Amino acid sequence: MKVLVTGGAGYIGSITVKQLLEAGNDVTVFDNLSQGHKETVSCPLVIGDLLKKEDLLKLNGYSFDAVIHFAAYTLAGESMQNPEKYFRNNILGGLNLLEYMKEHKIPFIIFSSTCAIYGTPEKIPVTEEESKKPESVYGESKLMFETVLRWYDRLFGIKYINLRYFNACGGSIDGSLGEEHSPETHIIPVAMQALRANRPFSLFGTDYPTKDGTCIRDYIHVEDLATAHIQALEKLQTTKESDSINLGTGIGYSNREILDMVQKVSGKMLSIIEVSRRLGDPPIVYADNNKAKSVLGFSPRYSDLESIVRTAWDWQMKHKQ
To answer: Looking at residue 292, what DSSP letter applies?
Structure first.
């Protein structure tokens, strides 16, 4: 297949591109490099911004069978401070992409969505039928674009699969690619950065109604996440039916369990400072992934906690000197 990957120089995007190439696909990355890294791309890279329609003209001369759309801002906290940035980029940028797809008759899109569209879930594990009540502008912007996709399917026949991620983590199995955000907000790399810099780690909330008092979340290895994108693309080509699917492991790990594993894998002790809860952090969130299993044939290979943390640590040690 000829696949256009927007945001393909980013964390999840670059590892998905790697898998697409290994499977023999013809891949082109479109990225403005605001969060991505040029050196992670080993296929044609078109530098451009989806907010600028004229930048999409740089793709003239290419032809595509499908799009995988990662390009978005993803920090929930920042989205509450700067909603205009998130609504503009995550919706208008996506609209420009869909108009390009319509004009060039590209029939399929896999959309990088999020479990943040559910807000605080009413039932655990979280199914695709859970009520949609985002608690951040980030989550709302992703839900709004899911609505846009539904209308572009209805009006123009562009078929989609929304992949609603839980917590992506880990590094590529060969150690070549990993998580590098600025700023970094995810617990595993933040804990590792604290270890390497010999500074304390702030643990938010130790009085939740959970087994050890800390939040429980669903962590999925980025390699498994990337594989699911390829499975979704193959499914969409075969069925030509739009859908929405949760991507998680169906297992929850607490923050303390994460920190214990970081210490085990690194062989170092964290200095942990217990601080009050963050506003809006629900006690327990993990996925019901039965639909991913039945529809995509999804079967996580690397999402046990030790594999997640070990691959993340290996990447840190190789690339963050």
So the answer is: I
H helix runs in the chain, sequence order: 11-22, 53-56, 76-81, 83-87, 93-103, 137-156, 187-197, 222-239, 255-266, 290-291, 305-319
> Token digits for 126?
């979280």
C-alpha to C-alpha distance for 15 and 58, rounded to whole angstroms: 24
Query: Considering Cα of 80, then 31, then 300, then 179, what sign does the dihedral take?
Result: negative
Per-residue tokens: 221: 């290895």
Positions marked active-site: 138
DSSP-assigned beta bridge partners for residue 204: 275
At residue 260, the 3 state secondary structure works out as: helix
CB 270 within 8 A of CB 259: yes
pLDDT at 173: 94
Residue 146: is its pLDDT beyond 60? yes
Question: CA 85 to CA 189: how far, in whole Å?
Answer: 25
pLDDT band with cut points at 50, 70 and 90 for residue 279: confident
Tell me: pLDDT of 135 over 60.
yes
Collect all residues with Cβ–Cβ distance below 8 Å to 8 and sequence separation of at least 6: 14, 16, 17, 27, 29, 30, 31, 36, 41, 45, 68, 70
In the Cβ-directed half-sphere of 286, how many Cα atoms lie within 13 Å?
Answer: 14
* C-alpha distances out from residue 297 to 113, 234, 300, Å: 19, 11, 10
